[in-house]
Each structure stands twice: as structure tokens, then as C-alpha cells.
Write a structure and sequence with these properties.
This protein is an alpha/beta fold. It has 3 domains: about 260 residues, Metallo-dependent phosphatases (Purple Acid Phosphatase, chain A, domain 2); about 80 residues, no CATH class; about 60 residues. Helix content is about 30%, strand content about 25%. The chain has 11 helices and 19 strands. α10 runs antiparallel to α11. The termini are far apart.
């Protein structure tokens, strides 16, 4: 909570990185497709906006996971956004890295946010390159300006300086809606701007609140009114919590349990006071299970990892085993029975292939040579996909070879390969 110079009353929701249309993890069983999970999280935010009777919602980018989202994502958008419109709640969004079209033909038609804005009137798109500012008046009469700065890669700082020239102090409340990171964040992801620039905007009251997106882990700087809510659901193990264990061959000890929350901010401005409350959204049971060993034999590693997974097993658990530490001289990594560890997947919703980092190595698999890649892919995918393993491995190898060559048509060729791929159910 902090005070500000101007005085007004309003309420809004700040959300980011909803990634509608994402199917993570790809479990491979149609009845367990994960796309609806992201739609439900988005619906939770819409429900909250209507219940709280907010003046507007700001979304800091990556509304969808792909610039050409699947039908399920379109259905969710056309189901939820009209509810906000009917409630008189504007939905203001800037362009995320996943919202931007990639191919030449897609760019010719504009991005999905432009369609939702200009064609359907369901959102208000804002970015420095066009529609630089969205201006609105709240139910209480406050004048609000929302300046958008989508994802602009290495040019993010330059574009923010350009946007600064368009800012004024006429509004009662101003928001910078940005898809990117600030230089002081502990984990910088994607396009970045300096904290010095942010301090200048906030201290001179060109901006009252900075609404960030792109980094899927929550972060905030309350003194400066800079907030990043993170994604509304887990999108990978990178933004999931980690439970760390140590194993001495007999006893499995829990060393650390890292918390992780996903959700959105409900921001209330009363007079000169801004209060941003983080509201959590129920998420799936996703976690990395890290087990550390010291001079362990291969059989001890196998048993220790199995014990850690079993301690966290449930029919809804999505788990990645992470193996750290050192092996005894009598054992090698190839002696670890990874297939025995993977046999526990029947007790879980999903079990990722173990990430092995023993004896100082941080790579997942130890390759004897380039010719082993396809063999390892087949081995890995067979455990995950069964009959579809060979076809999937073949597609993966084609993509690897294609991007190794690199050409102007690489992306288009890759799309053709993927479009022609028909994975097994």
C-alpha cells in the first residue's frame, strides 16, 4: 500500500500470461488433454472482475499461447470476453511474445488482438507502435490512461523512451502496461528496461502503476508500484515449485519446499492510496522433485528417486524428477535404472523424464555421439507415446536438421513438417 499525489477512486484487475490454447504437459491421452485448464483459470479472472464490479481489466500480454490458437482457445475467448463487455468492463491488453504472428502470411493479417479489438470490439489493444494509449472514464468519473508497451525484444528500452514522449499528466490515474522485465527483477525474462527509467516515470507521476507480464513467476516492488502477477497457471516446470530431498541410502530427508502461487492482482485506489492485493487461483498439482546424493551407487539413486516420487504420488500429480549430486566411483550414470523410475508414471497423472545432473554434469542425457540422438529420442518417446514414438522421433529429427541448416524459409518448412504430422492417439 502506498500514497500518491492525485486523488481518485477506482478498482481494476491486473492479469497476464493466460496462454489460452496451451496443452502442457502433453500427456498423450485424449481424456487428459490440458487445454481446458488454462481456459478455466481465465474464466476465474472474468468471474472475479464481474463479482468485484471492477472498472476495467488490464492484461499484460500472452493472452493466447500461439498466434494461431486452437478452436478451444477461440471458444473460451468468445465465451468469456462478451461477459465482460455485457458487464461494462473494458478489457485492455498489450501484445505479448506469444500473441504476435510469426509467419509472413500471418503478419499480413494483423495479430489476434487486432481481430478481437477492431473486428469484434471485445478488447482494447494498446502498444507503442499503434493505439499508444487507451483513455477511459470510470463509473466514479476518474480519467484513466493506459499506455501499452508490448514485447519489442532488444528495443524495449528504446520503445519505452518513445512512449514517454506521448505521456502526459492530465489523467487522474495512469498505467504502464508492459510485456517484459525490469532490470532489478531476480529472474529476468525476455525484453528488459532499466529500473532507472521506471523510477523516472513513477517519480514524475507520468505513471502511477506499472503492470508487467511475460515473467511467469510473481514479483513486485511495492514501494515503486511495479507488479508482475506471473502466469495464471503453470506453463512448464520452470514456474513450478521444487521440493528438495537428500538421500543417504537409507533415509530420505526433506530439505526445502519452495512455494509458488499463481493468480492476479486486484487493485483498489481510494483517494491517494493504492492497494494491490494478490489473489491466488487454484492450480494443478505440479512440482519438481529434486533428490541430492553424495557418493551414491546407481541402485541408491534409483531407490532414492523412487522413494521421493512415491512420497508425492497421486492420480493428479504432475512431477519432474531432478537428480543432483555425485556418484560413487563404482557406478556410472548409465547404471541408473531410469525405466524403473518411469514405471511409477502409472501412479501419477504425468511423470516427466528425469533430469540428471550428477558428478557436476547439468545435462539431461549423456550422448556418446551424434548418431545416438535418434536412438535416445525413440527410447524416451516410446515410454511416453507407445506406438507413435517412431513417427514423433522422425519429425523431431527433421526439425533438428532443418534448424541446423538455417535458411529464410526455415520457419515455413517447419510449419509444413508439423502440419503433416499426425501423432498417434
Amino acid at each position: 500500500m502506498s500514497t500518491r499525489k492525485k486523488s481518485c477512486d477506482l478498482k481494476f484487475i491486473h492479469v497476464a500470461d493466460t496462454h489460452l490454447g496451451l496443452n502442457w504437459p502433453a500427456i498423450g491421452r485424449r481424456e487428459h488433454i490440458q487445454i481446458p485448464v488454462y481456459g478455466k483459470a481465465f474464466a476465474t479472472v472474468v468471474d472475479a472482475a464481474i463479482k468485484e464490479q471492477v472498472d476495467f481489466v488490464v492484461h499484460a500480454g500472452d493472452l493466447v499461447h500461439r498466434p494461431r490458437p486452437p478452436t478451444a482457445a477461440w471458444n473460451r475467448l468468445l465465451q468469456e470476453l462478451p461477459r465482460l463487455k455485457e458487464a461494462g468492463i473494458p478489457f485492455i491488453i498489450t501484445v505479448g511474445s506469444h500473441d504476435k504472428p510469426e509467419s509472413y502470411f500471418d503478419r499480413a493479417g494483423g495479430d489476434i488482438l487486432q481481430i478481437l479489438d477492431t473486428r469484434l470490439g471485445l478488447v482494447k489493444r494498446t502498444d507503442v507502435d499503434q493505439n499508444q494509449c487507451v483513455e477511459l472514464k470510470t463509473k466514479g468519473g476518474a480519467k484513466v490512461s493506459v499506455y501499452g508497451l508490448g514485447d519489442h525484444g532488444r528495443e524495449q528500452e528504446t520503445h519505452l523512451q518513445q512512449l514517454r514522449k506521448l505521456m502526459n499528466q492530465a489523467a487522474d490515474f495512469s498505467i504502464l502496461l508492459m510485456h517484459g522485465s525490469v532490470s532489478v527483477m531476480p529472474q529476468i525474462v525476455g525484453s528488459t528496461v532499466s529500473m532507472e527509467t521506471m523510477e523516472g516515470l513513477l517519480s514524475r507521476k507520468y505513471v502511477d502503476y506499472v503492470a508487467l507480464g511475460h515473467n511467469h513467476k510473481r514479483w513486485e516492488h511495492r514501494d515503486m508500484q511495479i507488479y508482475n502477477p506471473g502466469s495464471t497457471e503453470y506453463t512448464s516446470f520452470a514456474d513450478a515449485p521444487t521440493i528438495s530431498y537428500s538421500y543417504d541410502g537409507k533415509i530420505l530427508r526433506e530439505e526445502n519446499r519452495e512455494p509458488a502461487e499463481h493468480g492476479y492482482y486486484l487493485v483498489e485506489v481510494a483517494g491517494e492510496v493504492i492497494e494491490a492485493q494478490f489473489k491466488t487461483i487454484p492450480t494443478r498439482d505440479v512440482r519438481s522433485i529434486e533428490v541430492r546424493f553424495d557418493q551414491a551407487t546407481a541402485s541408491q539413486v534409483t531407490e532414492g528417486v523412487k522413494a521421493a516420487i512415491s512420497r508425492n504420488a497421486s492420480s493428479s500429480a504432475i512431477i519432474r524428477p531432478v537428480i543432483r549430486g555425485t556418484l560413487h566411483a563404482s557406478s556410472s550414470r548409465s547404471d541408473i535404472n531410469l525405466q524403473e523410475i518411469l514405471s511409477l508414471r502409472e501412479k501419477l497423472l504425468f511423470l516427466e523424464y528425469p533430469l540428471v545432473g550428477l558428478a557436476g554434469s547439468e545435462v539431461q542425457l549423456e550422448l556418446a555421439g551424434e548418431s545416438d540422438i535418434e536412438k535416445i529420442l525413440n527410447q524416451y518417446l516410446k515410454a511416453r507415446l507407445g506406438q507413435g514414438a517412431e513417427t514423433t522421433a522422425d519429425v523431431a529429427m527433421k526439425l533438428v536438421e532443418l534448424y541446423t541448416r538455417k535458411s529464410r524459409t526455415t520457419n515455413q518448412e517447419a510449419l509444413s513438417i508439423v502440419d503433416g504430422w499426425k501423432p498417434s492417439d
